[in-house]
Design brief:
- Chain A: It holds the Pfam family Clat_adaptor_s.
- Chain A: Keywords: Membrane, Protein transport, Transport.
- Chain A: It is found in: Endomembrane system.
- Chain A: This is AP complex subunit sigma.
- Chain A: Its main location: membrane.
- The complex is a heterodimer of chains A (142) and B (839).
- The model of chain A has no long low-confidence stretch (mean pLDDT 90).
- Chain A is α+β, with helices and mostly antiparallel strands and 142 residues long.
- Chain A is built from 5 helices and 7 strands.
- The termini of chain A are far apart.
- Chain A has a single domain, classed as Beta-Lactamase (2-Layer Sandwich).
- Chain A is globular and about 45 Å long.
- Chain A has a 5-stranded antiparallel β-sheet with strand order 2-1-5-4-3, sandwiched between helices. In chain A, strands 6-7 form a two-stranded antiparallel ribbon.
- Chain B is an alpha+beta fold and 839 residues long.
- Chain B has a domain of 114 residues: Immunoglobulin-like (Sandwich).
- In chain B, 57% of the residues lie in helices and 8% in strands.
- A 5-stranded antiparallel β-sheet of chain B has the order 3-4-5-8-7, with no helix packed on it. Chain B has a 3-stranded antiparallel β-sheet with strand order 6-9-10, covered by helices on one side. Chain B has a two-stranded antiparallel ribbon with strand order 1-2.
- In chain B, a hairpin with a 2-residue loop joins strand 1 and strand 2.
- About 14% of the residues of chain B have low confidence.
- The chains are: A alpha+beta (142), B alpha+beta (839).
- At the A-B interface, strand 2, helix 1, strand 3, helix 2 and helix 4 of A face helix 2, helix 4, helix 6, helix 8 and helix 10 of B.
Chain lengths: 142, 839
């Protein structure tokens, strides 16, 4: 099960944070610690990191880091694939997604994520079906 | 939407966009905080005024503020208002806010139940979807009970979009309230016949959750429901279907669904031969047909391997699985190498021989550039050592040790010592290996390894000359590695005469004089880099040499006098005692300083769970801890309703590896002018074991001012006092057994034994106790901080109670430990102490 998904920039600022399990302790300080540990990793290290009683799977796209916290039942390689699919979906919707797109359209970014992952589990991986409700909504508000 | 709102009225509050710009433009954390505080104040004001126009915009801003880590909970009620609004745009932000801001641990989340119920019955699929999405993320126990019926209905809906989300809501509900599982069982029947992959994926999740939570459900799905053939069919379709644009992910058809199905098959096949049999073929097909050039294919293979390993699969299939992992180890992708090592580590116990075949690849991973991979490779390499390969493996591991990152060295040296002890082909090899460990990773050796090495040498009488020459050469070159110097000093002290004898086969004899030996030892004693423990070792060695050397006795005597004024209490005491031996008891000196009889390694090192790393860090158990504990003890006493001046709680800090300080006492007695007692036999002087005495003394001194206090005075006065179960809850059992101190009838010695009957170890176990002020309580350090699972081990701790008034003993206890990642705190009172303790 996924515990959280974080989007962080190279400076360590959180750009999106979705939790699927309420963090045990102080969310902010734990988040900072996680981000610090992931950003400190070098290129020649693998994308997995054991952290307390769970695992972090992270992947970097240009200036953005995607960090996913998972329990020990998850398949780390499949989570990497999930991260890639999230990025592709964002790319498709925002057309070459960048940090600013996420910042200024935070609600949309959350909605897209919610169509993909719910309650810490994958709901849908087909990009057209993921984006359908958001596109319908966009048309309705125009 | 925000543009729309902007058109309606002016002047309007800042838009989210503007707020973000403002936050981005600030340069310091303080400025950012100021901007946010100002914005929050304005948002609060508008909430207070019941503003409807900008509520949506304000909540959106709050979500951003929340993400930055600032408190935003005052927006909770506004989210509820937005959810209740008929407008979709309002609802959308409202639900988003609810999912982020509401906390199932606070009652306010229940207020959303009604709106959720309405929206779950809404006629627009997207509104239902929103409600399901939020419910899936925040649903609590109460909500589960209230809304399970709605979710079950939606699970049977004909709309795939609703169905897939309802399935994941059901997963959440079952997690929260397991009894509700039965309600969802019938609905799962048709879910696997769906065409839509989203529904299939979530349905497999739901069934997995059910099987995981309930053995009955697992049996149901295995037998009545013919689940395995259904899953096999779906999986077969996926791998045989060829390209389907709808489900393609980098050339593989819906890898996420494949992974999920493989995981469910694992649950179904575990410990069940029939189910395992039914999936053997498909697993073989997946294992051989999956594309392995990309990460996505490897994620499926990885899951397949885990399933093959976990079920009762055919042996051929298991070999295939281990070979896949072997191929993974050769992969260029470091992530794949990491998962391979991780999985091999899981299977090494059951498929040792299959894993052995990949030994050389695993050993190669010790040189991997990635530290996580090196760590796993090290663990796996140690698991693979056996008596056939020990020579080769040790060579590799010692080579690894030389280059290893400091954080690995301690574990690595300890593991090498354990493996060498277990599989050594002969004593000579064993000693050589230990010598190599000491000289390559000298500073990273645990105390137990030092004790182990010393006993090893003392047992191997034919190799003592060889060992002492090697060690002496090593310290002639380098005196900075404390554990090495300690072992070498001990050996030179014991076998110094052999250094001169030159009776070593196949080695070039060492040409040294007595003065050269003493030069080296003196250099160690005077070096600022030597720790107090090392100096004690060396001082004792010099003293021992006084009966082994012939020409340098005056020099040794002078050295003792010199250290008689050392500022280090321990060194001073030792050298004064040694000097006295020269002056007043010279006739007994040779007897006292005789060679040690062979030591039993098992007593010194085994059973001590964790010994400390040597060196400066020997002074563990910070002196501050008594004060802290005392405070906590006071807090506990307050709970007891005790008086204003509670009895002090003095935890006695002991070094774990230190057995009772018998050697010091023996010498102490001798020097205490007790001439009548004949000093028979050699004094068992093992400096490493009595050396940390000062710490004990300091704290012991608080108690009674007598030094040195033997750590534990065992007595036979415990007969007939029954033990007592002080605490038993959640699998943790604490038992007290009693003894009376034979030197002081008012002292009761309680030995606490903690056991854990659950299947998960309890970490960071801390026991604290407090007694009313008429007593004095002394807690000694526990044997460890982890209570092993399934009663496989114990934590013991000695508690001493001084009861001068012979009053009935009462005790308040407090326990903390970490269980499955959760911190557990509990308190209790023990009043049923047997009266024999104070009568």
């Amino acid at each position: 099960m996924l515990k959280f998904i974080l989007l962080v920039n190279k400076q360590g600022q959180t750009r999106l944070a979705q939790y699927y399990e309420h963090p045990e302790h102080d969310r902010v300080s734990v988040e900072r610690d996680i981000i610090r540990k992931c950003l400190a990793r070098e290129d020649n290290q693998c994308s997995f990191l054991e952290y307390k009683n769970f695992k972090l799977v992270y992947r970097r796209y240009a200036s953005l880091y995607f960090i996913v916290g998972v329990d020990h039942t998850e398949n780390e390689l499949a989570i990497l694939e999930l991260i890639h699919n999230i990025v592709e979906t964002y790319d498709k919707y925002f057309d070459k997604v960048c940090e600013l797109d996420i910042m200024f359209n935070l609600d949309k970014a959350y909605m897209i994520l919610e169509e993909m992952v719910m309650n810490g589990r994958i709901v849908e991986m087909n990009q057209n079906r993921i984006l359908l409700p958001i596109r319908v909504m966009d048309q309705a508000t125009q | 939407m925000s543009q729309l709102l902007e058109k309606l009225t002016m002047p309007a509050p800042a838009k989210l966009r503007d707020l973000i710009r403002q936050i981005r433009s600030v340069r310091t954390q303080a400025e950012e905080r100021a901007v946010i505080e100002k914005e929050c104040a304005s948002i609060r004001g508008m909430f207070r005024d019941e503003d409807n126009t900008y509520r949506c915009r304000n909540v959106a801003k709050l979500l951003y503020i929340h993400m930055l880590g600032y408190p935003a909970h005052f927006g909770q009620l506004e989210c509820l208002k937005l959810i209740a609004s008929p407008r979709f745009t309002d609802k959308r932000i409202g639900y988003l806010g609810a999912a982020l801001l509401l906390d199932e641990r606070q009652d306010v989340h229940l207020l959303v139940t009604n709106s959720l119920k309405n929206d779950l019955n809404h006629n627009t699929q997207f509104v239902v979807g929103l409600a399901l999405g939020t419910l899936g993320n925040i649903c609590s126990v109460e909500m589960s009970r209230d809304l399970a019926g709605e979710v079950e209905k939606l699970l049977k809906s004909s709309n795939a979009y609703i169905k897939k989300k309802a399935a994941l809501c059901a997963v959440r509900i079952i997690r929260k309230v397991p009894e509700l599982m039965e309600m969802f069982l019938p609905a799962t029947k048709n879910l696997l016949n769906e065409k839509n992959h989203g529904v299939l994926l979530t349905a497999v999740c739901l069934i997995t959750e059910m099987c995981d939570k309930s053995p009955d459900a697992l049996a149901h799905f295995r037998k009545q429901n013919k689940m395995v053939p259904q899953l096999v069919r779906i999986l077969k379709n996926l791998i045989m279907a060829g390209y389907s644009p709808e489900h393609d992910v980098s050339g593989v058809s819906d890898p996420f669904l494949q992974v999920r199905i493989l995981r469910l098959l694992r649950l179904l096949g575990k410990n069940d031969s029939d189910a395992s049999e039914a999936m053997n073929d498909i697993l073989a097909q997946v294992a051989t047909n999956t594309e392995t050039t990309k990460n996505v294919g490897n994620s499926i293979l990885y899951e397949t391997v885990l399933t093959i390993m976990d079920i009762k699969s055919e042996s051929g299939l298991r070999v295939l699985a281990v070979n896949i992992l072997g191929r993974f180890l050769l992969n260029n992708d470091k992530n794949i190498r990491y998962v391979a090592l991780n999985s091999l580590l899981k299977t090494v116990q059951t498929d040792l021989n299959a894993v052995q075949r990949h030994r050389s690849t695993i050993v190669d991973c010790l040189k991997d550039p990635d530290i996580s991979i090196r760590k796993r490779a090290m663990e796996l390499s140690f698991a693979l050592v056996n008596s056939n390969n020990v020579r080769g493996m040790m060579k590799e591991l010692i080579f690894f040790l030389e280059k290893a990152d400091p954080i690995f060295k301690v574990d690595c040296t300890s593991n090498i010592c354990i493996a060498a002890d277990k599989y050594a082909p002969n004593k000579r090899w064993h000693i050589d290996t230990m010598l190599k460990v000491l000289s390559t990773a000298g500073s990273y050796v645990r105390d137990d390894v030092i004790a182990h090495m010393i006993s090893l040498v003392s047992e191997a009488s034919s190799l003592q000359a060889y060992t002492v020459q090697h060690l002496f050469r090593a310290i002639q070159e380098d005196i900075t590695q404390q554990p090495l110097v300690q072992v070498a000093s001990w050996c030179v002290g014991e076998y110094g005469d052999l250094l001169m004898s030159g009776q070593v086969e196949e080695e070039e004899p060492l040409q040294v004089t007595e003065d050269e030996v003493l030069d080296t030892l003196e250099k160690i004693m005077n070096s600022s880099g030597s720790s107090a423990v090392t100096k004690s070792f060396t001082l004792t060695a010099v003293m021992k040499l006084s009966t082994r050397f012939t020409q340098t006795i005056p020099r040794i005597q002078a050295l003792m006098d010199q250290f008689g004024s050392s500022v280090d209490m321990e060194l001073q005491q030792r050298s004064v005692e040694f000097a006295k031996l020269f002056k007043s008891y010279d006739h007994m000196r040779s007897g006292l300083l005789e060679r040690m009889p062979p030591l039993d390694a098992k007593v010194g090192s085994k059973g001590e769970g964790e010994a400390n790393t040597n060196g400066e860090t020997t002074a563990v158990s910070p002196p501050a801890s008594p004060a802290v504990k005392q405070e906590e003890g006071n807090a506990l006493l307050d709970l007891l309703g005790g008086g204003p001046s509670p009895a002090p709680v003095i935890p006695q800090v002991e070094k774990p590896a230190a057995p009772p300080a018998a050697s010091n006492d023996l010498l102490g007695d001798l020097l205490g002018l007790d001439l009548s007692s004949p000093a028979a036999g050699p004094a068992p002087m093992v400096p490493g074991m009595s050396a940390p005495q000062p710490q004990v003394d300091m704290l012991g001194g608080l108690m009674d001012g007598v030094t040195p206090q033997p750590a534990v005075q065992m007595s036979a006065n415990n007969l007939g006092i029954p033990s007592l179960i002080a605490y038993e809850k959640n699998g943790l059992k604490i038992e007290f057994s009693f003894q009376k101190d034979n030197s002081n009838a008012n002292v009761v010695i309680i030995t606490l034994t903690a056991t854990n009957s659950t299947d998960t170890p309890m970490d960071e176990f801390v026991f604290q106790a407090a007694v009313p002020k008429t007593f004095q309580l002394q807690l000694q350090s526990p044997s460890g901080s982890v209570v092993p699972a399934s009663n496989m081990g114990v934590v013991t701790q000695v508690i001493k109670i001084l009861n001068p008034q012979k009053a009935p003993i009462r005790m308040r206890i407090k326990l903390t430990y970490n269980y499955k990642g959760n911190n557990v705190n509990d308190m209790g009172e023990v009043n049923s102490f047997p009266a024999a303790l104070w009568q």
